[in-house]
Amino acid sequence: MASALEDPVLIRPFRGHRAAVTGVAFNAEAAGLATSSLDRFLMVWKLKTQCRAYKFVGHAAAVTSVQFSPDGQLLASASQDRTVRLWIPCIHGESSVLKGHTASVRSVSFSHDGQFLVSASNDKSIKIWSVRHQRLLFSLFQHTHWVRCAKFSPDGRLIASCSEDKSVKIWDTRNKTCIDSFLDYGGFSNFVDFNPSGTCIASAGSNHTVKLWDIRMNKLLQHYKVHRAGVNCVSFHPSGNYLITASTDGTLKILDLLEGRLIYTLHGHKGPVLSVAFSKGGEKFASGGADAQVLLWKTNFDSFDYKEVLKHHIRRTHIDDPPHLLDIYPRSPHLHDEKPQSVEVNPAFDVTNTQTPDPPVIEISSSFSTADDVGSEDLQYPPASVLATSSKRKSENGSESAVHNGDTQTGISPSLGNALEHIVGQLDVLTLTISILEQRLTLTEDKLKECLENQQKMLLQGRQEE
User: From CA 240, how far away is CA 382, in angstroms rounded?
Assistant: First the structure.
């Protein structure tokens, strides 16, 4: 059993959201933490020096997912308002809106090079977007129910998705086809993600299970049933040796994948835990729950220097021969139940000061602001020129998106600016038309499936009568 010094500990709770926290994400340096919530807001918590919180307002409905770009210069969010937003996490709160889905968007994620976004939606589709051009590239269809989550592989060649149709699918981004599918008849997966080397995926099941699959051999590697309720989210440690899970049973659990066992059970949330994520270096992790709290934890149990391991995983993002299966997780896929020797960590007893005053919250609306320069303690991100090349778009609430309009600086004539705005408007109409056609195609497929099922029932009844 690990000593107390090696156990993970709660650093502090953050309270600022008014409803359940649906997503947590660290920036590259782990100096900032972004969270999404059913209260329609994004929040960015500054973790170093003087702690502050920044509330980003723009979505018209609950925000379901959030992620920083790999360089930390952009923030992506998904919402039940059917949109994906790209934000510049600075004091101006600038964002642009990506429209295309015809139902709630459940998740959004960057590719590891930061050039693409993948989103998953209740319209049964997965969409891939260009970050630079902020436009839809293509859609993937084969799921027959709501798509809960979609993630890029580390090398960007594959996408893993999970749906309420009880399947986990692997897609090839080059030929835009589904190349593999894993079925779980016990329940559907709420969340799916690749391990750091890109050789395996982990799925979080509504049937209380966590499963690890080898995507090269189409084989179940490990199967854990350590929670007493559905698993909502998982996150791999950067080393690939540990997996943390968040569950509706109110706990976080840490699995040692090399030994194939549960090593920690963490308490702290009052109610379901909906999201969890390790920092890029693995030294911290954060969790968000239905209690509207965000808990920041120090890992501690990771006592190794993983710099060499991380370098290895960076090399794995390039095309080369994958390692042998036994080099990754040399375990059989037998069911791993909760072990009594796992360590229980309850911050109500282990942390002396859980009543830390909440940081001041600065509310930032999604529109361009000419606010005075902020001090060195405020969010230090690159200026809004990152999105300056993008087109101006209308947000859902009728306000203009906060993308810089550089007409005065670049000398663009008003007539040319109006023409460009007209083109952008036509592109929006075209995108909406394509989305409507996709929705009709999905409805047609559903009707056809229903007709085929009725036909099979009629044939069976006819045979029984004979």
Answer: 31
